[in-house]
Hints:
Blueprint: H1 3-17, H2 29-38, H3 41-52, E1 58-65, E2 69-75, E3 81-87, H4 92-102, H5 115-135, E4 143-147, E5 150-154, E6 157-158, E7 161-162, H6 174-189, E8 193-194, E9 203-206, E10 209-212, E11 219-220, H7 226-243, H8 252-260
Antiparallel strand pairs: 1-2, 2-3, 3-5, 4-5, 6-7, 8-11, 9-10
Helix pairs in contact: 1-3, 6-7, 6-8, 7-8
Amino acid sequence: MDAEEKALKKLEQRLYRYIKEYKFREKDIDERETEEEVFDENTLKTLYELSNEGIIEELYGVVSAGKESRVYAGTNPDGQPIAIKIFLIMTAEFRKGRMKYIMGDPRFEGIGKSMHKIVYLWTQKEFRNLKAAYEAGVYVPEPIAFKNNVLVMEFIGKDFTPAPILKDYRRVTSFMLYQILRQIYLLYNEAGLVHTDLSEYNIFYFRRKPIIFDFGQAVSIKHPMAETFLIRDISNIINFFRNRGVELDISVEEVLDYIKGG
């Protein structure tokens, strides 16, 4: 076994350390199978390379789990918390849920049907969307690095506990709504992007700021469906606040005019 293989084996042991208790709990069989799917050989090699590049030092437990990806807490070599998002390669949910955002995006033209290539490009797309939004002054997690199906970004929260999302706030206010609408405005006018799937489920509210995440599906304002997606984003947010009892004197049309008026 050469030095690289030894290092890869050591990393694999570190990654599985926090789930070793599952081996003794029959009810966690499905969870163990998912972990094996997340940490396939290619993903382990990718994490090893990011570790060698001084981006990831440690990887801890899951902080968010979905059908298409999992987000883990970790640290960089300075001990600072980071979020590590790993996209699942072999999942039908990814293709089923994301093809509508891939079609019409020139970055995916000619890529074929390889799920590895699609997921790798999707990871790159989320990084670039996050970077464009961050540089435009939108409240988003700072993107740090990406490689293959792994995206590393700023951890939003404290002591490895994620910040609460908007859905979990018992009391929301019109001030919070206007903060979010301002972020949609900046995203559209300064970053040239539409989130396309914005809701109370992908907005942290942390230190009195709405921090938007999950940018893989975000599209350019030149995308043929951009205005349709924008209207849906605005409607989702306004409806959430209305349903929580916030009195509003604005309509979707007025917000659309505000955003597109530049």
